[in-house]
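Anyone able to model this chain together with zinc ion?
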Amino acid sequence: MTEPLTDQLVDGIHRIPLPLPLDDLEVINAYAFESSKGLILVDPGWATADTERILTAALKHLGYGLPDVTTMIATHGHWDHYTQAIAIRSKFGGRVLLGAGEHHSIDSFGTLTGCYPRQVELLRAAGAPDLADIIDVMPYQEHEKNIDLGSPDEWLHDGDTLDLGDRTLTIHGMPGHTRGHVVIADPDVGIMITGDHILPRITPSIGFEREPEAVPLRSFLSSLRATLELPDALMLPAHGPVSPSVHARARELLAHHDERLTVIREFGASGRSPHEIAQALPWTRHDRRLEDLNPVHQMVAILEVDAHLTYDATLRSTATNSTTRS
Ligand SMILES: [Zn+2]
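re: yes, here you go
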């Protein structure tokens, strides 16, 4: 990596870029808060020896070590955000906090087998049985093996505050990317850690988790609107550069989904399946065809179309009900 070990954003708040063992996302931004109640880490990465080595070097640069970490917050349960927190806790101690809505997916590691059990069912229903067969037997990759997914020490709820002595962090529940996603604000200094809820360069996936909710896009859009109700802040995302305005990016994402919904609604009206609609749309920032994406990305694309159609159906049923009532 050519990035610096740490990058001070505001007095006592640092960005720590950490490597990821993934093809599509190479870096996650962890954030460290120095406080009179110890060192707090947010999203400390994917549990690998590389992450631990680079995180150790970064903390040393700030004058700390991993045993100084008292609290770790994961914005959500995806492995690039959560698993290193669990690994650090086992080795050095410290408590791990995670949004309460993540318990569905964390618990399901004990009850469901396979990498993407729910997604296989959804793909079949979305008209993609062949892809569902491929995903159904997909083995865990090397970097996904032997990962400890223990439960957090505490579940976070919307409106919780974290008293760090000289600063207070506020937790806001922002479901959509996952059911229990939280963002973390320090309103006194005007920053917000947005995790994967709002990313500067990419459109976050929606409901791509082990136990997704029924209408994840509804939650995501409502969370984006809720973000606009909070004071605007410097955006500290999990991936990509720190950006000046959370609000500006939330508005862009709302506009993107509005546009996407209109297009998908038109295709849906012609009776095409989510798979067929996904085949007709361009994907990624590079406008790739669905067939040119790897199976996991094809799955995410088809399920995104499915999420838009499901959400649109709830809008239509709400409209019908209110017409019936009036
Ligand atoms: Zn994520």
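Residues 76, 78, 177, 196 surround zinc ion (CB under 6 Å).
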